[in-house]
Amino acid sequence: MSEPRLVEVRRNVLKQNDVIARALREQFRAAGVFVVSLVSSPGSGKTTFLEKTLTQLQPRYRVAALVGDLATENDAVRLARSKAPVKQITTGTLCHLEAAMVQNALRDWDLHQLDFLFIENVGNLVCPSSYDLGENLRLVLMSVTEGEDKPLKYPTIFNSADVAVVTKNELASVVEFDWNAARTSIQSVRPGMQIFRLSAKTGEGMEEYLNFLSQQLTEQRAVARA
Amino acid sequence: MHELSIAMGIVDAALEEAQRRGVQVSAVHLRLGVLSGVVKDALMFSYEVACQDTPLQGSQLIVEDVPVVVFCPQCHETRTLPSVQLFQCPECGAPTMDVRQGKELEVFALEVQDDEVQGDRVQEHDVQKSEVKE
Questions:
Q1: How confident is the model over A129-185, as pLDDT tens digits?
Q2: What CA–CA distance (Å, rounded) separates B66 from A117?
Q3: Do B133 and A189 touch (CB under 8 A)?
Q4: Which of A82, A136, B30, B85 is most buried (CB neighbours < 10 A)?
């Protein structure tokens, strides 16, 4: 055997995922569909929030959702009540979605028939941050019951997100949620991030957030046409 | 915990490079950004598991932590962030999201020895030949 030596290789470990994500993003652009991914901890109210989003966008837009879950199809069943097309991606033991799973799940869907596609990631604030899914917007969700310092505990996922939604606002006074402290922690890990404060249950604040989504879709299509 | 699938990705990448060059790998050098979303300790453990029953079994994973480097729009300088909980210039306090470094998850280099069958002849060219890839 010869002496050991160092060889430079420079390989991005997630290259395969990034390549698929890029292809997906291009596919979404070509089809004119705006894709939002949702990340949050388990139990933050992601599914209720998504159900309300789908229901309230439906009169005006064609919407659909992919839902990642470890084992059950409960979320897909709940979301199907919105009457939007919903597909479950059961990840087994995997704690996050990867671009290839999204690609597989979308194989038999005609994206041209959609305005919005939502991808609900597995409830987890760590692992999903590493994987680009080709989404146009990554939305991080936290509920008022989780505490104002959640963003400081999970800076990477908040930093990788484009907008933050603070939900369960109907419980804010019960848990003495300090809105300024929450806003400060979000802005600290992700300066300039737009924040929506709402209650999926009562509908408070939903309109502003839905208008924001409409605007994003219009902007994306204007760019695609240009 | 997604470190096992990351570790398997590292092993795959290292094996592919090793086979292409006809070398044996004794250590894998990884650049790991603080913002990569990967936990180092979990990765070290997972790496051993991922190497089992592959030609990389017994090899070492050497991790270089890459801090977050941002560009400060006020100072017009790149700055290293002391904490990922505060995305602002450590000098002037200006908030910034212009991240220049810290998301890396990259097999940077391999410590190798030539396979006996292949001999030593190729070794001097190896470094030059290894083109930089994304």
A1: 889 999 999 999 999 999 999 999 999 999 999 999 999 999 999 999 999 999 999
A2: 35
A3: no
A4: B30
* Interface contact flag, A13 B6, Cβ < 8 Å: yes
Q: Does A126 contact B123 at a Cβ distance shorter than 8 Å?
A: no
Asked if B9 and A160 come within 8 Å (Cβ–Cβ), the reply is no
- Inspect the interface and report whether the beta carbons of B95 and A187 lie closer than 8 Å: yes
Instruction: With residue B27 as reference, give the H or E element that holds it.
Output: strand B23-33
Token pair listed for A94: 């995997």
Please check whether residue A188 touches B, CB under 8 A.
yes
Task: Give the phi and the psi of residue B58 in degrees, each rounded to 5.
Answer: 90, -5
Q: Which chain B residue shows the shortest CA-CA distance from A10?
A: B108
Backbone region of residue A65 per phi and psi (left: phi > 0; alpha: psi in -120 to 50; beta: other values): beta
Domains and CATH numbers, chain A: 15-218 (3.40.50.300)
Q: Of A5, A127, A189, which is closest to B87 when you measure between CB atoms?
A: A189
Model confidence, pTM: 0.89
Prediction ipTM score: 0.85
Decide if B31 is inside a domain: yes
Which residues of chain A have a CB within 8 Å of the CB of B108? 8-10
Q: Tell whether A93 is within 8 A of chain B (Cβ).
A: no
Whether A187 sits inside 8 A of B127 (CB atoms) is no
**Bridge partners, residue B33, by sequence:** B66
Residue B11 lies in a domain: yes
Q: What amino acid is encoded at A88 in this protein?
A: Q
List of residues 6+ apart from B5 with CB closer than 8 A: A94
Domain that holds residue B24: 3-116
Q: What is the CATH number of the domain that holds B38?
A: 3.30.2320.80
**Hunting for tokens 């208008």 — which residue is that?**
A211
The answer to whether position B131 is within a domain reads no
Cβ B70 vs Cβ B78: under 8 Å: yes
Q: What is the pLDDT of residues B66-104, one digit of tens each?
A: 999 999 999 999 999 999 999 999 999 999 999 999 999
